[in-house]
Amino acid sequence: MIKDIIGRNAEAAAGQKEIKVLREYFPQCFNADGEFDIEAFKAALPEGTTLTDETSGFNWLGKNYARMLTNMDTTTLIRPDEEHNAKPENRDSKNIYISGDNLDALQHLVKSYGGKVKVIYIDPPYNTGSDGFVYNDRFNFTADELAKRLDVSRERAERILSMTRRGSASHAAWLTFMLPRLSFARNLLTDDGVIFISIDDNEQANLKKLCDEVFGEECFVAQFIWEKRKTRENRSSISIRHDYVLCYVKDIELLEDSLGLEIMTKAALSRYKNPDNDPKGPWTSVPAIAQAGHGTKSQFYTFVAPNGKSYNLPSGSCWRMTLEKMNEAVAQNKIWFGSDGNGVPRIKKYLSEGKQGLTPESIISSEKGGTNDSAKREIVELFNGKAVFETPKPVELIRHILSMTLGENATVLDFFGGSSTTAHAVMQKNAEDGDNRKFILVQLPEECKPDSEAAKAGYKTIDEVGMERIKRAAKKIKEANPLFAGDLGFKHFVLEEPKENALLQMEKFDPITTISSLTVDDFGLEAVLRTWLVADGYGFTEDAEEVMLGRYKAYWKGNHLYMINPDKDFDANSIAALMDKYNGEPFSPQNIVIFGYSFSFTHCEELQKNLRTLKEGNKTLTVNIDVRY
User: Which of 292, 437, 488, 521 is the most buried (most CB within 10 A)?
Assistant: First the structure.
């Protein structure tokens, strides 16, 4: 558990995950001393693979430090909000809200949801200088220790530590903050998963380079331009009316499974009519000419319509089709000459051809994606006239993004939860199209500014306001869609570090020589159980079944039997009951997980002895004892 993680974190270094992958897939490239042989690696690659040393690279102060953080694990516990989670609307919900640092949350999530998240949308700090971003972390490395871990000079280590501790808002600090979070985000995506990231000009260029490195330059899809404001601002030299939304996929070869056609709006559908009663149904028309640079020699000609009227090309243009294809289209009634037959020829585009959708555009207009003003109005309306969030994103923007992504049961993650727009949009979209998307939101429980509308309204932390927004939005959606039976609840969990005295006792504890004064009460039984369930791949919303072993209560889920309670109720009768379960009932957890502080060394040895006897009688039985501290 935490003691084990602290030990592993002490050995963490940049590049460990990459080396692990290389060892798994290219074991022949490591010699007897564990050194990586680059020439052997080149020889192992497919014939024709191009290798180059002319890459530009993207480096900054703190990059290796950030890479090291991706190889560390969180020491936080996951405490369920039992009162909230037990309410009828939340009891069976698969939606998740996590209060805590998003790096800790991502480190937990990747254990259960790695490769399972279809859509990620995040709105990280823009680092404008006025948005409150500063980089601080809780790690207490010395300069000498960090220099050794990162293989850098002591001077450089001191510069890195200065940046991570003084509250820097430099570009380097922002990149150091973002790299590990994006690395874990990539690990969470399904193979056909897609990520959207809102940003402005302050860090747009750096974010693009960072994403090229994390996701791969070939996995870049688009940099959408979102019209965030309709009106001109005269307070500055340039009126900035847009932000960006960067889009990357996990695997570019699966792009067609990641993004689909944008669903047609009512306005778009209204353009399809059938004035000539075409048997193919409603259609709209598109120009029959294109830019000359796109054409071949066969696309430059004078076209003569069936009524004898000639049409010459405008300067710099060509026909979209050859003359032969154009005449075929006329014969098939696919060319429109206007209601009087004398108009410039245009090509019919039928509603019935292909999916009823539109190719997404790189510009997200305010009509499609809402604006900053509409986002504020949404908040004010939900919170009875109070603007409890200063810079929310509009529901329309996230709904538009969701309309481009495929996957009716998609899991949607937002680890900068903020105003909970993503949760609102997911519920709203489900109510509209009947899909069953699930959301996971993460928000640091930052204190609301004393002079903010949220604080004046009685809210203490940002996550508290975010959860309230979800509840109010769910109520509004249900009122507007009374027949909707989808998931409008969420389960809430809080990430907590162990108390300082508990950490000190863990560091000194030796399972053989030390009698522990730590108990499960120092951590909380439900927190330990939920943390283990997530670590073992069962997620935040799946519960374990209580199992009675004599007087002792254990918890069973899948391949794991969890024994957390103190051993005062665990005796010879408990061991006998456990052996009987393995011999009789459909009961076969392969891992017995023991909370080491609750069990004496003697009890663990006795359990091991009985399991050996059990295995001797059943050679196919595989049971491991995993003692966690």
Answer: 437
Angle between helices 143-150 and 154-165 (to 10 degrees): 110
Q: Residue 537: left if φ>0, alpha if ψ -120 to 50, beta else—which one?
A: left
Backbone angles phi, psi at 610, to 5 degrees: -70, -35
Q: Are 439 and 467 in contact (CB under 8 A)?
A: no
Contact 164, 230 (CB under 8 A): no
In 509-557, the DSSP E strands lie at 545-549, 552-557
Mind listing the pLDDT tens digit for each residue in 576-601? 999 999 888 788 899 999 998 888 77
How far is it, in rounded angstroms, from Cα 618 to Cα 207? Answer: 57
> 65-134+169-263+365-495: which CATH topology?
Rossmann fold (3.40.50)
pLDDT tens digits along 85-117? 999 999 999 999 999 999 999 999 999 999 999
Beta bridge partners of 591: 560, 624
**Mean pLDDT for each consecutive 10-residue tract of the chain (629 residues)?**
82 86 87 83 79 74 95 96 97 98 98 97 93 87 91 93 87 96 97 97 96 95 96 84 96 87 65 91 90 85 94 91 94 94 91 69 95 96 94 96 90 98 97 94 96 95 98 97 95 93 74 71 93 97 95 95 87 90 87 89 84 80 88
In the block, residue with structure tokens 């944008």 = 262
Ramachandran assignment for 396, one of left (phi > 0), alpha (psi -120 to 50 degrees), beta (any other): alpha
What whole-number distance in Å separates Cα of residue 378 and Cα of residue 394?
8
| Side chain identity, residue 242 | H
245: nearest Cα among 194, 171, 186, 176: 194
279 to 71, 276, 282, 351: CA distances (angstroms): 62, 9, 9, 12
Our CA angle for 167, 171, 173, nearest 5°, is 35
The full set of domain ranges for the chain reads: 1-55, 65-134+169-263+365-495, 140-165, 266-355, 500-628
Residue 233, CA distances (Å) to 128, 144, 224 in order: 18, 51, 22
Give which of 62, 60, 97 is closest to 81, Cα–Cα: 97
Q: Cα separations (Å) of 548 from 176, 561, 577?
A: 48, 11, 8
3-state secondary structure (DSSP) of residue 221? strand
Which of 197, 195, 200 has the alpha carbon at shortest distance from 228? 200
Structure tokens at 140: 């207490």
State the sign of the Cα–Cα–Cα–Cα dihedral 496, 500, 505, 506: positive
DSSP 66-127: HHHHTT-----EEEE-HHHHTSHHHHT---EEEES-HHHHHHHHHHHHTTTEEEEEE-----
* Helix 372-382 / helix 395-404 crossing angle, nearest 10 deg: 110
